[in-house]
């Protein structure tokens, strides 16, 4: 699970509402996977990012210096875009957990895929 | 996808086939996404008149397909060989790291290509092809339609091998196989085998070609029905619909691509498939529109495993995120998604604990105002959405349907997109009744509907737009 994806997720536990964001991230296995840099794409994602959530998640993963907000003129600032590209797209949480901050419910991340099923309804193969 | 055309031409499409001319090379043609197969046209003419039950007469007419104009056959075959040689040359040259051949087929050649079961609509005058779904039954190489009499003839294998060793076979040493599909009135008088035999024998007599069932140089494809008689050569060995980048296909890639193409995926969009299965739709979308963020969700471990494999095989793991979540309980904030594309599972195989309405409700919640939802729905889904009011879906064949299972599709765009100018009026009129009239769902306004065939069943591609109304 990439941090860009984590940034979009919120808790859907019943009755939780807006306090279900962001999901607290814990990781036991993280991989850095190089991804082709597409400055246009990164620039488009920037306005959608919830910064507090991103910073919190990045800090949990000890990613070092993380911008706390977009720089003025970020669209043309390649350094900034490259940093954001790395944080948002190149860090993969392979194993870990996501926790709903309100209800405390914990969801596992296995092999990069978060399992956020609320009830026991997986169709097994 | 824009196919360059060298001269203004008319793109003609008739129930399942699109006829067009182009001077593109094979690489461009390979990128056609919404067609099952691609053929080089040899002949297209009016259907055979079988009202007189004189088989002999009709037999003669079939032979005349070849004998009246052997030139066009030879021309098409040489164009086809040129295409392949050009392609092979390119591959050799590019391997040696030299410049690619820039020469196209030549502006003066009219290469009339036929797409089996494909539709195209011209949105703008600049020939920007907007491809909608094409569907028909799975086109294998029509194994069942072989000429049985071929087996009695000598298979000139040695000759084949010698010819291959020498390079491309000359016109006289060509081996062929005829595949035939018949439907409508013709099919009542002739079986596919019979037609294949007639054509095959005529070809042998006219050109001296030999038949080879197993590995012919050329495959001749004939399709006879009530609307046309068409003869062509398949351009590629494998159907276009079988994608190099999809390891295990779930939904047909042509339908998946078509759904993605009507979804209006813009750069930077967040695109969700909340019942992604093996990820076919997301793969097709991410391949064609790479500048968006794709998220796939499914409840099943097995499906997600398959999806992950597919993503890896296609090299698209970085573009598509996977989640194990339920479509009716999406862990996404309201109004956070730009596009939702989904194939709503139907059939008893899928134990859908939730009904289609609760699915739509959750989709509506997470969608941005102005966002798009594109769904593939079964007739049953449509019925439950119309709540049993005036079921406008005929339970079985009507009008243009023939005996072919799933070969037809009505392609009638409704709504404001205004693409209906290019639809011949007769098509529109006779097919309006096939389309289910689904009402708006909350703030989701229906925009367009397309009927597609999935082989054994039919389905509908339904597009909604979320309106900017208040209160949501």
Broad structural category of chain B? alpha/beta
Strands ordered across the widest β-sheet of chain A: 1-2-3-4
Radius of gyration of chain A using CA atoms only: 15 Å
How would you write the strand order of the largest sheet of chain B? 1-2-4-3-10-9-7-8
Q: What is the overall pLDDT average of chain A?
A: 89
Note the total helix count of chain B. Answer: 12
CATH class of the domain at 1-97 and 173-242 in chain B: Alpha Beta
Whole-number tally of structural domains of chain A: 1
Shape of chain B: elongated
Task: Indicate the percent of residues in helices of chain B.
Answer: 25-40%
Shape of chain A: globular
Largest interface: A-B, 36 and 29 residues
Order of helix and strand elements from N to C terminus of chain B: EEHEHHEEEHEHHEEEHEHEHEEHEHHEE
Gyration radius over CA of chain B:
24 Å
Q: CATH topology of the domain at 1-97 and 173-242 in chain B, which one?
A: VC0802-like
Which consecutive residue ranges of chain B, at least 5 long each, have pLDDT under 50? 97-169, 388-433
Notes on the structure:
The complex is a heterodimer of chains A (about 120) and B (about 475). Chain A has about 120 residues and is an alpha+beta fold. Chain A has one domain: N-terminal domain of TfIIb (Single Sheet), CATH 2.20.25. Helix content of chain A is about 30%, strand content about 20%. Chain A contains four helices and four strands. A four-stranded antiparallel beta sheet of chain A has the order 1-2-3-4. The radius of gyration of chain A is 15 Å and the shape is globular. Chain A starts with a helix and ends in an 11-residue tail after the last strand. The mean pLDDT of chain A is about 90. With about 475 residues, chain B is of the alpha/beta class. Among the domains of chain B are: about 1-95 and about 175-240, 2-Layer Sandwich (VC0802-like); about 255-385 and about 440-465, Rossmann fold. Chain B has an eight-stranded mixed beta sheet. In chain B, strand 16 and strand 17 form a beta hairpin. The longest helix of chain B is centred in the N-terminal third of the chain and has 26 residues, at about 70-95. Residues about 95-170 and about 390-435 of chain B have low confidence and may be disordered. Chain B: Its main location: nucleus. Chain B: Belongs to the methyltransferase superfamily. Chain B: Keywords: Methyltransferase, Nucleus, RNA-binding, Transferase. Chain B: InterPro entries: RlmKL-like_Mtase (IPR000241), SAM-dependent_MTases_sf (IPR029063), THUMP_dom (IPR004114). Chain B: Pfam families: THUMP, UPF0020. Chain A: GO terms for molecular function: methyltransferase activity; protein heterodimerization activity.
């Amino acid at each position: 699970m990439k941090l860009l994806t984590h940034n979009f997720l919120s808790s859907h536990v019943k009755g939780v509402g807006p306090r279900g964001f962001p999901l607290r991230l814990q990781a036991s296995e993280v991989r850095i996977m190089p991804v082709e840099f597409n400055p246009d794409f990164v620039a488009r994602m920037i306005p959608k990012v919830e910064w507090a959530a991103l910073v919190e998640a990045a800090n949990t993963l000890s990613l070092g210096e993380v911008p706390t907000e977009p720089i003025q003129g970020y669209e043309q600032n390649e350094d900034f875009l490259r940093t954001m590209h790395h944080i948002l797209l190149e860090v993969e949480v392979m194993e870990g957990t996501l926790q709903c901050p309100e209800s405390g419910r914990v969801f596992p991340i296995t092999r990069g895929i978060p399992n956020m099923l609320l009830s026991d309804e997986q169709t097994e193969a | 996808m824009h196919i360059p055309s060298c001269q203004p031409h008319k793109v003609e499409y008739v129930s399942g086939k699109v006829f067009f001319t182009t001077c593109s090379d094979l690489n461009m043609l390979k990128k056609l996404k919404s067609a099952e197969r691609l053929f080089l046209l040899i002949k297209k003419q009016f259907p055979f008149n079988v009202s007189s039950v004189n088989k002999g007469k009709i037999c003669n007419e079939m032979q005349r397909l070849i004998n009246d104009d052997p030139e066009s056959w030879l021309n098409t075959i040489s164009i086809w060989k040129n295409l392949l040689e050009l392609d092979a040359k390119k591959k050799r040259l590019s391997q040696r790291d030299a410049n690619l051949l820039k020469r196209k087929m030549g502006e003066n050649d009219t290469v009339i290509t036929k797409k089996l079961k494909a539709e195209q609509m011209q949105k703008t005058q600049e020939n920007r092809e907007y491809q909608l779904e094409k569907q028909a039954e799975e086109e294998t190489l029509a194994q069942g339609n072989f000429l049985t009499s071929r087996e009695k003839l000598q298979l000139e294998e040695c000759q084949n091998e010698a010819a291959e060793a020498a390079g491309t076979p000359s016109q006289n040493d060509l081996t062929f196989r005829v595949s035939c599909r018949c439907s409508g009135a013709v099919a009542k008088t002739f079986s596919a085998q019979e037609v294949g035999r007639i054509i095959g024998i005529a070809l042998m007599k006219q050109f001296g070609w030999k038949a080879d069932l197993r590995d012919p140089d050329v495959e001749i494809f004939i399709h006879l029905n009530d609307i046309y008689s068409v003869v062509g050569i398949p351009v590629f060995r494998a159907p276009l619909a079988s994608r190099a980048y999809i390891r295990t296909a779930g939904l047909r890639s042509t339908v998946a691509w078509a759904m993605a193409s009507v979804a209006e995926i813009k750069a930077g969009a967040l695109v969700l498939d909340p019942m992604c299965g093996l990820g076919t739709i997301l793969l097709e979308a991410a391949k064609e529109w790479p500048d968006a963020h794709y998220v796939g969700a499914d409840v099943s471990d097995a499906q997600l495993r398959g999806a992950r494999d597919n993503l890896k095989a296609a090299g698209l793991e970085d573009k598509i995120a996977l989640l194990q979540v339920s479509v009716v309980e999406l862990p996404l904030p309201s109004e956070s998604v730009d596009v939702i594309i989904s194939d709503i599972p139907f059939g008893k195989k899928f134990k859908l604990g939730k009904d289609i309405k609760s699915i739509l409700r959750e989709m509506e919640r997470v969608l941005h105002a102005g966002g798009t939802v594109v769904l593939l729905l079964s007739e049953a889904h449509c019925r439950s959405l119309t709540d049993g009011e005036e079921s406008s879906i005929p339970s079985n064949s009507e009008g243009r349907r023939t005996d072919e299972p799933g070969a037809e599709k009505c392609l009638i765009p409704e709504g404001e997109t205004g693409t209906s100018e290019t639809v011949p009026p007769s098509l529109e009129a006779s097919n309006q009744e096939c389309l289910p009239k689904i009402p708006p769902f909350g703030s989701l306004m229906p925009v367009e509907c397309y009927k597609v065939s999935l082989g054994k069943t039919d389905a509908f591609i339904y597009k909604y737009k979320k309106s900017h109304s208040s209160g949501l």
